[in-house]
């Protein structure tokens, strides 16, 4: 009897111990098998001439015969213990970096931690010419132009200086400041091809995985799905624009923030996107009709074109879903669904979808 | 007997299980209690005028009444399970970012992982106007000027295109390419005060810790030691320049790469640096005499001034040590000691020093 009692106690301890090592979700510890960073993709400028170390004057550049490596992406990855089959690759949007997926503006866990705890390997990208991947093969001028009230509205936090009544964004001053400080500029012009190439190289390197994009990252994401057979699914949070097959390009859609067009690609390429499951998520406070609200307008057009994209995918035999969160009873999401106050609920939706598609 | 055997087996399993949770060094798993990122420091530009959302023309900026948050640092942190008393704060050098401390160019673990496995909390900084902390309150123009052969020499990998015979740098082409791709540009002019302020704010936020700097990060590191009583020790890998008390500034030292001066500060400020243990490490292939080798020359002067700095600290009652690695039998280190082929040995030196100083 005494032995049996000790056995039970030890067995319980053992159970908790093993849980700590294999299940990241329940006990608070993140247990990683591996983490690190690397560059992927990019090109090399070889300047003509011959390098001569004698041409040196107080670090003034003499490019003769020298090289410049640029236009690569930077990737930080974490592989949890006992990880699931497909890694998740995260590509940020305009003016952002991999930070988009890290700690939220009010200090909660972002998708990096949430999905690591769910035992997915995560690959967080700084796209070429952004963040830690700053060496660009094209020049740029960066100026401190005050623009944050515009982004506040475009990102659907509210109508400055007010918050939307139902907004899933923290209302304290410090959180808004943190949110603004997440932005980081282009160090060279945005080039969807350059970004796509780096994403294709990333999937060449890591093998099959699921691509998760946000906003402006949507377009290079679709291109990566066309160009890499290792992209097994695409999840897109409020993408900027879309691909359509040749001859099926919808009329451009006009709104207060501009004229939105899709991009035509050969049918054979478009068909690649019909071979993988695709899901798009859109948040709240997006205009149903034309209005004067920048955020409502900007995403009204992008949502409308997204509906046509999903129709085109499915018309050609694909499996695309567009989720408008208010229509399933989830209200108040900004453009940054993955860091909103209800981001666990948003992550749960994604987990459910991956499970449904046999991707987890 | 049967019960006893089962008990032993379960006890062994339990032992391994517990080890997996609490000792990061021996079993390959990184066990983290917490990880995340945040901004710290920085300023806000408030543009005069009134924000008007009607002034919108295809994302052309109308700064009237808008704000711009910039000049903060970006910090990524990891707190291992059962972490040691003092966190380590890592500040990179010129043209670099926090990547400096992550995976090495040939794919080995950098100081981030090495010291996390040794149960130190790590805080990796992208300094203001660099990497993910790109929003700068001053403008910058970034051009793709080929300069890598110069850096190859300045960083003491060899004399282009040759490697130093004893160099602790991987000799394959891919590693060199990865190394070049670690660089990322300033998105605003280097400003030691701006960086110092963000480091002081970081130590305000996290409390007492050990500051580890590399190269150009050395100078804001010394200033942070003066300005924040939470800096309990400074470790500096090949710092760029140094502080001296008023009236004790050494003569500038001239070399092929420029004229190197220290910076004068009030004695009361300098005395702050005599209250904490300080260690400087320098690698190999640094010139003993004047030569034509850019790398040997650049670090000959900075090492010489470093000796005078250490003398000044100790003359005023402090505890500073300068370690020239070849003098203790460690050869071939480049300017990037912490990612060289022998970086475990370099990390061991630091661990020993922290132990000796009662810092671990």
Which percent band covers the strand fraction of chain A?
15-25%
Give the neighbour order of strands across the main sheet of chain A.
1-4-6-5-8-9-14-15
Number of helices of chain A: 9
Largest interface: A-B, 98 and 98 residues
Task: Indicate the CATH topology of the largest domain in chain A.
Answer: Rossmann fold
> Count of DSSP E strands of chain A?
15
Percent in helix of chain A: 25-40%
Domains of chain A (count) = 2
From the N-terminal CA to the C-terminal CA of chain A, the straight-line distance is 44 Å
| Alpha-beta content class of chain A | alpha/beta
Shape of chain A: globular
Mean pLDDT of chain A: 94
What is the chain-wise order of helices and strands of chain A?
A: HEEEEEHEEHHHEHEEEEEHEHEH
Highest CATH level, the class of the largest domain in chain A: Alpha Beta
Oligomer state equals: homodimer
CATH architecture of the largest domain in chain A: 3-Layer(aba) Sandwich
The CATH superfamily of the largest domain in chain A bears the name Alpha/Beta hydrolase fold, catalytic domain
Low-confidence stretches of chain A: 9-24
CA-based gyration radius of chain A? 23 Å
InterPro entries (chains A, B): AB_hydrolase_fold, Carboxylesterase_BioH
Organism (chains A, B): Macellibacteroides fermentans
Protein name (chains A, B): Pimeloyl-ACP methyl ester carboxylesterase
Q: SSE layout and pairings?
A:
The structure is a homodimer.
Chain A: H1 2-22, E1 30-40, E2 43-46, E3 67-70, E4 73-80, E5 88-91, H2 111-117, E6 122-126, E7 140-142, H3 148-154, H4 173-181, H5 192-206, E8 209-214, H6 218-227, E9 231-237, E10 243-245, E11 253-255, E12 258-260, E13 263-265, H7 267-272, E14 277-282, H8 294-315, E15 319-324, H9 343-356
Parallel strand pairs in A: 5-6, 5-8, 8-9, 9-14, 10-13, 14-15
Antiparallel strand pairs in A: 1-4, 2-3, 4-6, 11-12
Helix pairs in contact in A: 3-8, 5-6
């Amino acid at each position: 009897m005494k032995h049996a009692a000790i056995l039970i106690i030890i067995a319980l301890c053992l159970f908790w111990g093993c849980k700590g090592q294999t299940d990241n979700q329940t006990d608070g510890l993140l247990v990683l098998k591996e983490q690190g960073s690397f560059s992927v993709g990019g090109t090399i400028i070889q300047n003509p001439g011959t390098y001569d170390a004698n041409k040196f004057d107080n670090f003034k550049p003499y490019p003769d015969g020298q090289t410049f490596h640029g236009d690569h992406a930077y990737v930080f990855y974490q592989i949890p213990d006992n990880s699931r089959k497909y890694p998740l690759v995260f590509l940020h949007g305009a003016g952002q970096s991999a930070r988009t997926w890290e700690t939220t503006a009010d200090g909660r866990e972002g998708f990096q931690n949430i999905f690591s705890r769910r035992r997915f390997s995560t690959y967080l990208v700084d796209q070429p010419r952004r963040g830690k991947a700053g060496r660009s093969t094209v020049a740029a001028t960066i100026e401190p132009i005050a623009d944050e009230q515009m982004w506040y509205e475009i990102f659907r936090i509210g109508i400055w200086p007010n918050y939307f009544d139902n907004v899933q964004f923290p209302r304290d001053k410090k959180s808004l400041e943190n949110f603004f400080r997440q932005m980081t500029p282009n160090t060279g012009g945005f080039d969807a091809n350059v970004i796509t190439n780096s994403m294709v190289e990333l999937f060449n390197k890591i093998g099959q995985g699921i691509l998760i994009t946000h906003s402006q990252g949507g377009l290079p994401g679709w291109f990566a799905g066309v160009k890499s057979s290792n992209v097994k699914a695409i999840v897109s949070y409020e993408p900027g624009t879309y691909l359509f097959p040749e001859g099926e390009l919808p009329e451009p859609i006009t709104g207060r923030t501009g004229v939105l067009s899709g991009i035509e690609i050969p049918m054979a390429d478009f068909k690649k996107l019909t071979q993988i499951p695709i899901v798009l998520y859109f948040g709240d406070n997006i205009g149903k009709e034309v209005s004067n609200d920048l955020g409502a307008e900007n995403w009204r057009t992008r949502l409308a074109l997204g509906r046509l994209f999903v129709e085109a995918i499915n018309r050609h035999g694909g499996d695309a879903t567009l989720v408008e969160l208010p229509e399933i009873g989830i209200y108040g999401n900004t453009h940054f669904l993955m860091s909103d106050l209800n981001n666990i609920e948003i992550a749960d939706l994604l987990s459910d979808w991956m499970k449904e598609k046999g991707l987890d």
